[in-house]
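Researcher: Good morning. I'm working through a list of sequences from a screen, and I'd like to move beyond sequence-only analysis. For each chain I'm collecting a predicted structure so we can compare shapes side by side. This is the next one on the list. No need for commentary yet; just the structure.
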Amino acid sequence: MDQAVDLTGVVLETERLRLRPWRESDLPALYEYASVPGVGEMAGWPHHRSERDSRKILELFQAEKNVFAVALKEDDRAIGSLGLHSSWAETDDRYCTLRQKEIGYVLSKKFWGQGLMPEAVREAMRFCFEELGLEALTLSCFQSNPQSRRVIEKCGFSFVRQKGVHLEQMERDEMLLCYFLLRADWEKTAR
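Model: Good morning. Structure tokens for this chain:
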């Protein structure tokens, strides 16, 4: 069961990161990382070709109020995004009655391999379970995205299924790997 969220005014902090609402002043940083070929494609969308593309996404993030800017604490510069979206598991009879969200994320290529995204996802998990009272979280990634798969597995999610999807914007088919985590299972390892 989808749980409505509004992240307006919510700021989460980790050792190195701040997850916060998007600001108009984040537009150059968003374009900087979203325009790099390969970044968006790993998440199923084409890289941004102009600042106008990034502006549309920034306006969407601000309107929907369900996506954090992932910013470095040292300078508060946005280097990625982390959103709480409708979950694939809402259509699965085994999970559809649980209050849940899907975590989706993108990180600037400059910061890949530094453990930043697992750090951000773990804090989002804590927020979702402890502050929003969710019962479950899901994540998914394309089979062709081993970096994202490592993040998901490091964060304790269990593989449930895979399914073929067609990415309209990318004009290609992909295999989507779907992962699941119950709050009770998270609680066993979070202490």
